[in-house]
Write a structure and sequence with these properties.
single chain, mainly alpha, two-stranded antiparallel sheet, 9 helices, 2% strand, globular
């Protein structure tokens, strides 16, 4: 089951005018995404809908920004199964830190709109690796430095070991 906000966000884009990484029309990307949400997340993140379609390794393809927007909407959708959060955040992170700076920056602008679901993931304590991806994604936003430092201190035990340590102190500017 999926909420109307995700479906509306998908409909904002003309996926058929974008060429996917598989060299086909990107029309199949949202269809494959919605179909995938009906099951368990794939073992390889983004397999079947993002990997080799929206990004190939760290190279971003034409539907990257539209996909970032679709994923950000899904993170805000309470109907998306919690087991998908890690995978969605990891795909969003791949889009925001891809090699094409202009496309990655556009994906970051989209991700900026879903900062609260990312903070919620850090605070929830559900999955350490999902919290780690959320934390790292939030480091892309310099204006969040103070808040992210507070969350790092407050929810240190919810983060992976490398992000708990004093060696990764957002207050010192290590990011």
């Amino acid at each position: 089951m999926i909420g109307q906000v995700v479906l509306a966000e998908i409909s904002r884009y003309d996926w058929g005018k974008m060429t996917c990484g598989c060299m086909e029309s990107a029309d199949h990307v949202p269809q494959d995404f919605l179909a995938a949400l009906g099951g368990a997340p794939p073992e390889q993140v983004g397999e079947g809908w993002a990997d080799n379609h929206v990004y190939i390794q760290s190279n971003l393809m034409a539907p990257a920004v539209a996909t970032a927007s679709m994923v950000a909407a899904a993170l805000a959708d309470p109907l998306i199964p919690l087991m998908w959060r890690r995978s969605l955040i990891e795909v969003l992170s791949a889009l925001c830190f891809g090699e094409q700076d202009d496309v990655a920056e556009a994906c970051q602008e989209t991700a900026r709109g879903c900062k609260w679901p990312l903070y919620e993931e850090i605070g929830s304590g559900r999955m350490i690796d999902a919290a780690g991806y959320a934390f790292e994604l939030l480091t892309a936003f310099p204006e969040e430095k103070e808040r992210l430092g507070f969350f790092q201190e407050r929810f240190r035990m919810n983060l992976p070991q490398d992000l708990r340590s004093e060696n990764f102190d957002v207050h010192r500017g290590d990011w």
